[in-house]
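Researcher: Please generate the 3D structure of the following complex. Treat every line as part of one assembly.
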Amino acid sequence: MDLSFDIKNAEGDHVMVALSYYDSETISLFSSDPLTLTLVFYDVTLVRKAGTGYVGYNILFAVSDTLAKFMMENEDAVLCFYCDADTDVRRNHDRLLPQEYRSKLFSKMFEWYVRSHKLKGFINYKVEIEHPNNSASRQFAHFICREKHQEAVATIGHLLMEK
Amino acid sequence: MTRNITIKTPSPKMIQVFDDLREKKQQQIKKLSEKKECTFTIVV
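Model: Done. Output below.
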């Protein structure tokens, strides 16, 4: 199941947000733990379709709001946000890799949203891995889940960390 | 709450998962880049 939304503002910014389901066959390759197989994992992708400069705050809040509402309506959902390294992104901090900047922004958006809406019961797992053969190559991914599902999500992490 | 996890020596399995996440991301970016508009539009 794929879901996508256009988010636009009066300044000409246009961001497309898509949620794409990971089928259970794919998940079962990573974990056969029955607890994890009750969860439904969704890839979250954002693509800027129009606009120059930095994306407006109202767009970023609308993205957070859309994802939050999706989580509220889908009890067993886990959102997965892999931070793209291949597309450049406008940022103030040139020393940050594009994927690192995206990761920081995603965490900031999560924290802003839960604080402003006084939301409890959600966790943003930010996972960073360094490539063993190339320490400059760092990858970032975020997994947002309900607190009651943290054990299941952590189980996947532990299984994946087994050599 | 945000929990930060840094893995300096990821297992081959973990590397594979991240490579799969990356591939899925590339597919989604391509799909969205080609899409003109979605069924739902939010104007802020």
